[in-house]
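Fig. S4 source data, part A: sequence.
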Amino acid sequence: QFKELKKLSEHDRDAFFNSFDLVFCDCDGVVWYPLGDFIPGSAEALAHLELCGKQVTFVTNNSITSAKDQIEKFAKQGQLKVHEHQIVHPAQTICDHLRSINFEGLIYCLATPPFKKLLTDAGFQLAQESGGEVIKSLKDLHEAIYGGENVQAVIIDVDFNLSAAKLMRAHVQLKNPDCLFLAGAADALIPFGKGDIIGPGPFIDVVTQSVGRQPTTLGKPGEELRQLLLQRHPDIPASRILFVGDSLTSDIEFGHASGYMTLLVLTGGTSLEEVQSLPSGHPQMPDYLADCLGELA
């Protein structure tokens, strides 16, 4: 069963802080609201972690906002100085992966403009959409699916303009077994507005089922991201890492599978009732729970 930070004794709180050296922290719903400002207390909590000598790396599935914009957002809090290497997000991890395998082919990328810009700025070539924006006939559909160049990699992340034709084109390209299949954020649901909306995960699953093979997933909760994070900090045992997030699937279950200690905050996509309904020993059961990140301060 989880322990609530606000109910810990001074002794237990000290033991908690002494149990980790590195913090992997989500951003949206944890540090700030998805469309708004810093969540009250979060900036103070991050400053307190730094004061305590803890390393902090931000592990986010948000490639919609560039790392530069996120760094500026941190800087506006005054006491927070975050460097680019501290921010891990799917566009960057996929870019790093492509570099590591010396990829030089053409990419069909279903993602937002900032995600695509990071790839093109790194020197990768992206295929253009074929056909018109609106499909009115079978001829238009055929052009949208088959009209473009063959590619050597397909990437799927959050795409606000995703369409059936785009998924069909991705499926056709991935019939080639030599075409790489890469996925970024794989959340089934993402917090937006007054609740959750469909995330990229279900669309990745549609393509996965149609082509009969799994993507290399370099966003949460992907196995490949788990390995990448372990490689980034080889000197710190997984048992000395605290993973902080607001999602039971993308953060807590991912953290447990990696061997990390976990802290769930209730400022994002999960309610206290959802956590309380989990049976003991469930892989999504957090080790610790807090109303907000500010309780760390």
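Fig. S4 source data, part B ends here. DSSP finds eleven helices and 14 strands in the chain.
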